[in-house]
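Hi F.,

I've been meaning to write this up properly since the lab meeting, where we talked about keeping a consistent format for the predictions we share between groups. The idea is simple: the sequence comes first, exactly as it goes in, then the C-alpha cells exactly as they come out, then a line or two of notes. No screenshots and no reformatting. I'm using this chain as the first example so we have something concrete to point to.
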Amino acid sequence: MSIRSFKTLAGLGLTASVFAGAAHAASLQEAATLASAASVKTLEFAGAGHWRQFGQAPVPGGDWPKFDVSAYSAAIDFDKVAERVLVTRSQTPDGRARPAPVEQKLEWFIVGDKAWNVAPPQGAAPGAAPVATPAPAAVDERVAEIWATPQGFLKAALANNAKSETAGSGVEVSFAIGARRFVGAIGADNHVSAIKTWIDTPVLGDTLIETHFAGYKDFGGLHFPAEIHRSEGGHEILHVNVASAKANGAVDIAVPANVASAPAPVVTVASEKLADGVFYLTGGTHHSLAVEEKDHVVLIEAPLSEERSIALIQKIGEIIPGKPVKYVVNSHVHFDHSGGLRTFVDAGATIVTQDISKAYYEKAWAAPHTLRPDRLAASKKAAKFETYEHKHALGDLHAIEIHHIAGSGHSDDLALVYLPKEKLVIEADAYTPAAVGAPPPATPNPFSVNLYDNIQKLHLDVERIAGLHGRVATIDELRAAIGLKKAAAN
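Output, unedited:
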C-alpha cells in the first residue's frame, strides 16, 4: 500500500487495527492456507465446457472458433513442472460452411522444458496409432497454465518473493518466475479469483492469458473453483465447469524417448522450381511461393514465425540473388499464416492483404513485443500495405492476380493467388492435397468445393494448384476431391 493511500485512510478516521483486520481478511498466506497450497504436490481436475482455437478467428479481430468439450481433464505435478491435459471436443456449429464436426481426442503434455502432443500422424489412415510429437512452441503456454491454477499460483507466489498490495477488499499479488510475470487477485474470502500472465506469440507479441475462477467448492477437502474461464489475446479460449478435483493423487508423466532426444528445431526451406522464375518454398507444415519480377521478388505467404521468415529470406537470396522481396501477399489473417509477416515489414516489404485485415494488423503490430523482441520491435518501422476488396494485380515479368475467395467458411479474408501464364493457383486451407494415390474423401470438404466454385466464377484457366499446406496438385485432383469427374479434354 502506498504512503499516500495510508494517509487517506488516516484522514478518514480509520485506525491501524481496522486496516490490519482488512489485510488479514484477504492475504496471500491466508489464501495459501485455505487452498492447502503447501501440501498440494499434485492436482487433478476434470469437467466439461468449451474450448476455442487461438489465432483462427474466421473474421479478423473476431472471437476464436468454438469447440464443445464433452470431457476435459488436467493432471499436474508441481515439483516436476509437469502437466497432462486430455480434451474430447467437436467444433460447435456456427452457421458457416465447414466440414461436419467430428469428435477429436487431444492429448497435451509438458515436463520441465519438454512439451509434446500425442495424436495419430498427420495424414495417417483412420485408426492409426497415436504417436508423441515434440511441441517446443507450446512450452511457455503450458508452463503458464500450471502456475495459473489457484494452488499453483499460491505455491509459486510463496516461493518467489511475491509482492502484495491492497486492492479493494482483497489483495493483488505479483511475482515472476524467471522472465514469466504473474499477477493474481485474492478476494475477501481468501480465494484466488483471477490470474494474469503473459507469453510471446508472433502476431500479438506480449499476449495476455487471463484466468478467472468462480464458485469455489470443497472437493473432498480441497478448495477448488467449480468454474474456470480463460481468455488469451483478449478473447475467450477455455471455459470449464469442474465436476471433480483432488490433490496428491498419483500423477506419473514421463517424457517419451523420442521427445527427450529430439534436437532443437531447425527451420529449413527447400526450393522446387515450378516454372521459370516461380519457386515453391517448402519444408515443414507450411509453404510459400516466390515469383521473380524484373527488379524484385513477390513472396506469397510468410507463415509461422520470424525464424521461418529469416530462413525464407536466406533461401530467396540463394535462388533469386540481388532482388529484394518488395511485396508479400498474405492469404489470410490466421496466425499460422501471418506469423512471419512482421519480419518482412522490418525488411521494407509491402504487405498485400484484404481490406478487412489491414486495421487488425496495424493494431496487433503496435502492441509491445518485450518478452521475445523481434526485428520489427527493434526497428519500429511502419508497415506499408496494399489492400483490396475483390481483386489486386502485381507483377511485370510474371503477372500475378490476387482474388478474394468469396463465401469461404474458413475465413472471411481468405484469398487465392493466380499466375495466368503458368495456369497456377496458390492457396491455403481451402484445399490441402492428399498424398499421391490416396483415395478422395468420402464427403467433399466444403472449403474445397468453395475454392473450385470461385475458380469457375472467376473464369481462371487452371492446370495446377500449389497448396500452402500439402503439395502441388492438378485441377483434376481438386475435382476428384470434391466428387466431380475429370474435365473433358479440349
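Notes:
The domain at 270-481 is CATH 3.60.15.10 (Metallo-beta-lactamase; Chain A).
The radius of gyration is 26 Å.

If this format works for you, I'll send the rest the same way.

G.
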